[in-house]
Amino acid sequence: MPSTEPSQDHPTPSDLPESCPNSSEETPDPTEGHLFIVQDDAGRRRFVLESEVYSIGRERTCDIRLFSQFVSRHHATLVRVVHEDGTDSYRIVDGSLDGQPSANGLLINGNKFKTYDLENEEEIVFGPQVRAVYYRVVRQGSQELSG
Questions:
Q1: Are residues 53 and 97 in contact, defined by beta-carbon separation less than 8 angstroms?
Q2: Considering only CA atoms, which of 61, 96, 60 is closest in space to residue 76?
Q3: How does pLDDT run across 17-33, given as a tens digit for each residue?
């Protein structure tokens, strides 16, 4: 699987409007999509999620690389989940898909989880000064709604 590269613009979660549209000129606005905004020692980066699975950690081979000595090499995994109504979202799992947990675990909205189905605007803390916010973007006609 090719590595996900961050877009050239680096908005902060507070800079994004409530619906969090994908504002990159390089990537067209999705009808429905998912954004993952990472804040770590390298600054803020935005990832547009489109694949089924993403590895997250400090290892160079991770799809979403975290820059901090306080995160595991394979800290977490994002897995796309398709719901009965046809919509999709992402589940975050602590550690790698082969079952190796991270050293620090995951804090989501202040609570520790091994696995969690993410909803719009939820914050994941990987370690000190390393966090991400998940956004689900839905457009209906010309009106933008967050899911």
A1: yes
A2: 96
A3: 333 333 333 444 445 79
What angle is formed at CA 63 by the lines to CA 134 and CA 121, rounded to 5 degrees? 0
Distance CA 88, CA 126 (A): 23
Q: Over 70: is that where the pLDDT of 11 sits? A: no
Residue with tokens 């290892």: 59
Q: How far is CA 10 from CA 34, 82, 141, 142, in A?
A: 16, 28, 27, 25
What average pLDDT does range 39-59 have in this prediction?
A: 96
Around Cβ 2, how many Cβ atoms within 10 Å?
6
- pLDDT 10s digits, 82-106: 989 988 999 999 999 888 999 989 9
**Position 121 pLDDT exceeds 70:** yes
* Of 60, 46, 59, residue with least CA distance to 9: 46
Strand stretches in the chain, DSSP E: 32-40, 43-49, 53-57, 64-65, 76-82, 88-94, 106-108, 111-113, 115-117, 122-127, 130-140, 143-146
Residue 85 identity: D
